[in-house]
Amino acid sequence: MRLPVDLQYRITDREFNLLRDLIKELTGINLSDQKKMLVVSRLSKRLRALGLPDFTSYVKYIAEDDAGSQEIDHLINRMTTNKTDFYRESHHFAFLTDVLLPELYGEGVKTGSHKLRVWSAGCSSGEEPYTIAITLREFFKDKSGWDIKILATDLDTEMLDKARKGIYTEQIVHPVPTQYLHRYFKKGVGSNQGLFLVKDELKEMVIFRRHNLVSEPLLIKSPFDIIFCRNVIIYFDDATKGSVIRRFHGALKSGGYLFLGHSESLMGSESRFKLISNSTYRKGS
Fold first, then answer.
1. Number of domains in the chain
2. Options 21, 33, 117, 154, the catalytic residue
3. Positions of the chain with pLDDT lower than 70, given as ranges
4. Catalytic residue among 6, 42, 85, 183
């Protein structure tokens, strides 16, 4: 009887600690001792593909100059969590439409600056930035002259490729309101039946880019009005979370907004931000 992939390999404490340290260094993800089988499950296919007998060999392989640098992307892609949905935590988009966008629009009218910049950090396969794009498109559809862009970043190159394509199954787009589904998606026919393609008018609003929240500075021309980073920092330890929050603070304009996941908090960074709604924060001046 052939064993499932994740049962063909065993991982020692030493191997797990080596990989855990490397994963944290590369991604910021902090794995507990209880995550050993998760590592085995997610990386066993890579060992099989490379013809390696054990995780010690895999660690050595990663350390090689040429082959290892290419394998790092596979390691990151396997170890990042990519759970996301259209309109996930829908109260954020209601708050955006009802409160924040009217405020930002009013400020733009007063100052004459009709520019809006949003960052979706940890965008995964694109559902979040496209939901943001729909929300902004709907609000500004009768307000001409606005320059609106969404930067969507993630570590996982496979997820970014999927996001750029913007093709989703009927099950995945189910949370999208029917009128928006008709307006902003093309429904597949024939061999593409059951698939939905994001229309160019939304795609043109979003720039997808690979970026490491933990270790890479984000080069931007102007600060963001809004940052979404939901269900990402929950995987970091306190020190890494604090560092990332400081990066967000620096990337936001004065009075800008930060959306976190419902189970996340600013952990001692309250002096930098003020809680204004459910897991929604505003940067101090």
1. 2
2. 154
3. 1-7, 65-68, 267-271, 285
4. 42
